[in-house]
Structure formats: C-alpha cells, structure tokens
Design a protein that fits this description.
The protein is an alpha+beta fold. The chain is 56% helix and 16% strand. The strands form 2 sheets. The chain has a 7-stranded antiparallel sheet. The chain has a 6-stranded mixed sheet with strand order 8-9-10-13-12-11. A hairpin with a 3-residue loop joins strand 12 and strand 13.
Length: 590
C-alpha cells in the first residue's frame, strides 16, 4: 500500500518500516479484479445492452479497450514483481479515467457502469487513504452532476452526445451514495493500514530485542526508533530497582554513532525522576502564552479528564514538549520512557495508545535479555567455581606434595652440590602454587554486597600477607559502605589484580591498601615500596591510555564502573595506585 499524500508524519514514519512486499501483491490482486470486472461488464453489455444505439456501440468499444488495457497491465505486473510507485499512480489514473468515459455513453445510476465508480473508490482507498478517497468520491459526484446539467441545460449538440435521463431526486440519491461509500471505504482502509503499520513497526522493534544481544545496544536502538516516529529531539529512560529503590537515568544519543550515558541519581529525586504524580502515559506541550496543555490516558488506554491533570507542570526543565510512558520491566524494575520535544498529530489519543502498547509489548523482551545476561553470568560463574575446585583438589595438592618431597630430598643432600639446585626447584614449585591459588581466587565468583565488602578485602589482604610473607595491611576509613554490588565485585577484582602485580613484578617488602570516601567519591589506594613503574611522575587514566602504560585489566574494570584511576610512580622507590568511583555510581547493563 502507498502512503497517503495527506498522512500525518506519525503514520508516514510507521509505514516506512512496514513490509514493502505487500504493494506488488496488492497491485496483482487489483489487476486480476480489473480484468474480471471488464470481462463481466462486456459480456453483460453484449447480452443486455446498457444503452441504446449508437451509444451502446461506443460503450462496447470502450469496454473492449478497457479489457485489453487491463490484461496488458496484468501481464506487466507478472513480468515486473516490483512495479514501483509510478506504475501505481498510472493505474490509479486509469481507474478514475474509465468511469468518466463510460458514464458519457451509459446511464450510470441504472447500469453496471456505476460499479466502475465504486471500483475506483476502492482502489483509491487501499492505495492511498481516506482523504484521497473522499476527493475521488466528490469528483465522481460532480461528474454525474455535470453530465445531467449538460443534458438539461447545455447546448443541444453537446447534450445529444451524452446519454442520461434527467432526474434530480435520483441524482441527489446517487451522489449521496457515492460520497457515503467513499467516506466509509476510505475510513476502513485508513484504519486497516494504520493497524498494519503499527503491528509492522512493533514487530520491527521486537526483532531488535534478540536474546543474547547486549542490552544497552537493544535499548538504544529501540529508543531511537520510537523517538524518530514522534520526531523527538532527545530521549532518556529512568529506571528504578523495586527492591532497593535505587534510581538510574539512561540518556541515549539520537545518532547511531552516539553513545549512551548511564548514571545513578539520588533517592531524593525519585518522585521527580519517576514523575510520580503524573498519569501513566501523557503528552505535555507549552503554549504560546507560557502555559502548558496536557493530554493523557490511563494504564488501560482510556482518555483522562482534563480536570484531573490540569494542575501539573512541565516535568523537564527547558523542554518544549514531553511524551512520557510508564514502564514495568518484570518484577524488578519500573521506570519512565521520556521523549523530549516530540510531536503528536490531531489523533493524539491513538498515538499515545500506540506508544503505550508498543512499550508494553517490548518490556517482556527487554526483561528476557536482562535475565538471560544474568543467567549466562551465573552459569559462567558456576563453571569457573567448578574449575577452581578442581584446581585446588588436583593440581595444587599435587604441586604441594611434590614441593614437600623436594624439600625432603634437599635436607637429605644438605651440603651436596645438588642441594642448591633442589632449593631452586622447591622455590619454583612454591611460586607455581601461589600462581595457581591466585588463578583459583580469580576464577571463583565474587558474590558480595556492600555489607561484606570491607571484611572481604581485609581477608584478601591478610591471605596475601600469609601466603607471600609481604607485609600487607588494609585500613578502612569507613565502617560501612553503600556501593552497588557491581562496583563491589569490580573493586575486589582490582585489589586481587593489584596484589598479584605487587608479588610478581614489584619485589615490594610491604604494601598498603586503604579505602575511604572524599568529595563525593569512593577512594581505593594500593601503595607499595617496590621497584615502581617504568616512568616517573603522576599519570591519569587518559594519559596512561595515550602512552599505552599501566595494568590493562585494572583499567578495564575501573571503566566498567565509571571510575577514574591515577598511578604515581618513582622507579626504585615504589608506586601508588589510586582509584576513585562516584558515590552516585553506575549499574552495568552492557
């Protein structure tokens, strides 16, 4: 189906995403119908003349030409599966032209020729829309009026060329029938196309929500597509975790190259961010006199009375208009989809209902992706834990046993030339045991929350001290923390990786781990007295990237939680690793 020339921007954008293969199939159906109509009319006219001679002879000739033309169009469609828009316009012009020609030589209201007017209305309705169909109906009615006017009041020579009796009552009835039929056909076809466009667009959005895809990419793509339908300038989502009431804002760039920004907002902004006093789905727009108008529907799609919502203010500062829909993503998350500076058409209620239904159908798909990601992480963690247990029960125990046997041999050969070599082998075995234990700790899942974070880090540092003999200490300036669980896990991994690097590369005799808070930031410091890095001075995370310096794994983990990192190095005198994370942290959804 072709988009209506008068279709609002909303429907035009929806139809642009629909299935284009429907157009050739539709033209094929019309082509067959046209041939059948022409052949049937010709047979009827040959057996029961529709007009007296010589008018009927001209009518038969025109019907023959119509049948040949229709058959030619049908063959063209069969040979060209994608006929294109120009072909559809030519066909539409033909469908309107032939009733005009036929009515000159037959009495349309009382003959089969009147069916051609109805056929022209149907093809206009299904090719374009209601407005074009109404125009075609008005044009057809005016043509009938013109025909009878010429017969009744026109020049005698011209009136003799036309065949129709003059009957004002019948003319009014037939014109009214044409107008009513045109309006009903146009309205039904328009509604059918609207529903198909909405279903096609919703299916297109659902096709992007594939399980296994990164959640951030899916949310960005869906949000951009919805924003483009309503011609929005910016879009963001506010999500609240039901259990903790922690609130996150997800700002999404409108261009495909733009990234997204995900940040936590304070609990004090919960009511404003979630737009608690506002309706389930609403569109608010500023007026010329400085006020606002609001249109809204409830969670069941019913229009809300203006008296219930007139006192509300614009929820987004500086916005010209706001479209917002409440979200329910599974049992764990609720939120708001917010489109800034978008536009609604005259049928705003249907457009709001479409946005509501589309997001309602998308929410389970997004929740499935979220659950799949968590399930995949849990399965991976369980497999790593199993491998870690296997390492502990087999490889590590075997290495310890071998190291003990080598120690016995070394003691028996004390003073012999082989003693120093056995001691070297024993030391290598001890190093390998430490390496295996560190690998085992890294593979084990770290399932800790903020309430256990400080104790876990303290135990980690103490185990490092007992395993390596390095004087390691942990000091916390805080008694409790409110870090997100994701940030707790990443910081624990940072401490593990930092201590491994101290043992393997620094040769330090002491290491100092400190955790605290300063200026709205969580602060983790790892300080040692080893050999330091291969540079002197203080480098930020960006500078480390530019120079390709610093521990890659730690840098990646710091970025994952939206933090920053500084390394201060003095070769031969030690290094200091300082990591800061915003207290309004990030929840990782990637």
């Amino acid at each position: 189906m072709r988009p209506s020339l008068f279709a609002p921007r909303f429907l035009t954008r929806l139809r642009a995403t629909g299935s284009q293969h429907e157009n050739p199939r539709f033209e094929g159906v019309l082509g067959i119908s046209r041939v059948f109509l022409g052949a049937t009319s010709l047979i009827v006219d040959l057996t029961h003349p529709l007009a007296p001679d010589p008018y009927n002879q001209l009518l038969i000739f025109l019907l023959l030409v119509y049948c040949v033309e229709s058959l030619g169009f049908l063959i063209w469609i069969a040979l060209n599966p994608e006929p294109g828009r120009a072909f559809a316009i030519i066909m539409q012009a033909s469908d309107v032209f032939w009733p005009i020609m036929f009515c000159l030589f037959a009495d349309p209201p009382n003959s089969l020729v009147f069916v051609f007017f109805l056929f022209a209305l149907m093809t206009t309705a299904f090719r374009f829309g209601m407005y074009e169909t109404a125009i075609t109906a008005v044009g057809s009615a005016l043509l009938l009026i013109f025909q009878e006017t010429i017969v009744a009041y026109g020049p005698k020579g011209l009136s003799q060329l036309l065949y129709t009796p003059v009957n004002i009552s019948r003319l009014v009835l037939r014109c009214g029938f044409l107008l009513m039929t045109g309006f009903l056909l146009g309205y039904l076809a328009e509604r059918e196309k609207e529903l198909r466009a909405e279903i096609a667009f919703t299916n297109y959005l659902l096709s992007q929500a594939r399980v296994g895809s990164p959640l951030s990419e899916v949310v960005m793509a869906i949000s951009r597509d919805l924003a483009s339908v309503f011609d929005g300038k910016s879009v963001y989502e506010v999500l609240a975790q039901t259990s903790s009431r922690r609130l996150f804002r997800w700002d999404i760039g409108m261009s495909s190259q733009s990234a997204y920004e995900l940040r936590e907002i304070s609990a004090g902004e919960y009511a404003a961010g979630m737009m608690v006093p506002y309706p389930h789905t609403f569109y608010m727009e500023r007026t010329g006199n400085g006020g606002v108008t609001i249109r809204a529907i409830d969670d069941e799609g019913r229009r809300l009375d203006q008296s219930e919502i007139n006192e509300l203010k614009m929820p987004v500062e500086g916005a010209r208009s706001v479209l917002a829909v409440k979200l329910d993503v599974g049992r764990e998350w609720t939120g708001r989809f917010v489109l800034v500076d978008g536009q609604l058409g005259r049928n705003w209620e249907r457009e709001l209902r479409f946005a509501q239904n589309a997001l309602r159908q998308l929410s389970p798909a997004l929740y499935s992706i979220y659950l799949f990601r968590r399930l995949r992480q849990r399965a991976g963690a369980m497999e790593r834990a199993r491998v870690a247990r296997e390492l502990h029960d087999t490889a590590i125990q075997s290495l310890i046993s071998i190291e003990m046997q080598v120690d016995v041999l070394r003691r028996k050969t004390n003073g012999a030339p082989q003693a120093s070599e056995l001691e070297r082998i024993q030391q290598l075995l001890r190093e390998e045991v430490l390496n295996m234990r560190e690998l085992m700790l890294t593979m084990r899942p770290v399932e800790i929350g903020p309430q256990h974070f400080l104790d876990f880090v303290a135990q980690l540092v103490e185990r490092f001290r007992s395993d390596t003999g390095v004087d390691a200490r942990f000091v916390s300036e805080l008694e409790e923390v409110t870090l997100p669980a994701t940030a707790c896990r990443e910081l624990v991994r940072v401490v593990q990786e930092g201590l491994v690097n101290v043992r393997k590369h620094s040769g330090a005799r002491s290491v100092y781990v400190r955790f605290g808070a300063q200026n709205g930031l969580w602060k983790l410091v790892i300080d040692d007295d080893g050999c330091g890095f291969a540079f002197t001075g203080r480098l930020t995370l960006t500078e480390l990237d530019d120079l390709h310096r610093g521990p890659t794994v730690i840098k990646e983990r710091v970025r994952a939680i939206g933090g920053d990192m500084v390394i201060e190095s003095s070769p031969g005198h030690g290094a200091r690793l300082e990591i800061t994370v915003p207290q309004k942290g990030y929840e990782f959804y990637g």
